[in-house]
Input
Amino acid sequence: MLIVKKFGGTSVGNKERIFRVAQRCIADYQKGHEVVVVLSAMGKTTDELIAKAREINPHASKREMDMLLTTGEQTSVALMAMAMGALGVPAISLNAFQVQMNTTSRYGNAHLKNIDTDRIRRELEQHKIVIVTGFQGVDKYDDYTTLGRGGSDTTAVALAAVLHADACEIFTDVDGVYTADPRIVKNARKLKEITYDEMLDLATAGAGVLHNRSVEMAKKYGVKLVVRSSLNESEGTVVKEEVDVEKMLVSGVALDKKAARISVMGLKDEPGIAFRLFQILAKNNINVDIILQSIGRDNTKDISFTVDEEEADEVVALLEENKTRITATEIKCKKEVAKVSIVGAGMMSNPGVAAKMFEALYSSGININMISTSEIRITVLVDIKDGERAMNAIHDAFGLAE
Ligand code: ASP
Ligand code: MG
Output
């Protein structure tokens, strides 16, 4: 069997943990399996590197940021190979350049294009455990790129796909995928299995457990994922196309505190305005989420939308620059907002899910700022101070507790 095992930053955060991960991989290796390990940077390394960069230059180019951030993963793979060596098992670490993991050139948020499997295969044939840097790639200029925060999951799934792995295990510091973040919702329950679609919506809605692009890729290539704890042997959650149990009305609640709401006021109520506005954002690679347009009155209208909090300042600057072109009179930004989402495949065939969610919020006296829905997801924007309470109220209302 060929197994891809991915370990997150906490799982390799110190010497003891590195050895624990090494032992776990070696156990599979000694059963005769081929083992490919994907690692994140140790502990909070990536955050620390970002903080260091900001001290030197708050406007550092994204290319240089990637050059810096890729060192985090390179450190952990080398140390892991050394740990396995110390335990008497042949292992080799490889970075994105050595593997040849090619990506687009969008620094900070690059997409994988193709992965050369020759080198990895050769090392596996020589009975080595192969340890690959997560999160990074190389573009056509031979520059390092990164796949976006949390991107090591995507590296692991991509490797599992190209190597036709028999299993892809994502090890993290929680036991699996829960009905809500157990740190916020105390009685959250671990799910045995979840569909790709639900997991994708949950990941996109801010459930930190998997990088959303990794789920997209798993679905596309039919890679069955197992999310499990690196700290114990519990079973974890299987992510796959169809679940065996009955479709849940709601399988999870997610909270994303990193949203910001931008309101563009006094726009002319005529064709082409929304196009101009969102074209500016698209050209600058800004992801827009919930969009709300008011009904026009006195020939003007307002458009509000949410973006990633980190991009909010850039968005405001861009729109201020283009204020006349988009006919805006005022641009407002509010960062103290949070998105609360429910996701469930059963929603498609059951009316009343939205009403039940809104009732839970109303009963807790929580005001809704914006609403958006998809086939299997409902998202509301609330004040950040209400976020955790909203999550708990909704979790209770749908009876998701243990
Ligand atoms: N080290 C990167 C991050 O902190 C990638 C990852 O952990 O998946 O975002
Ligand atoms: Mg992660």
The chain has twelve helices and 18 strands. The first helix runs from residue 15 to 30. Residues 8, 150, 153 surround magnesium ion (ligand 2) (CB under 6 Å). The mean pLDDT is 95.
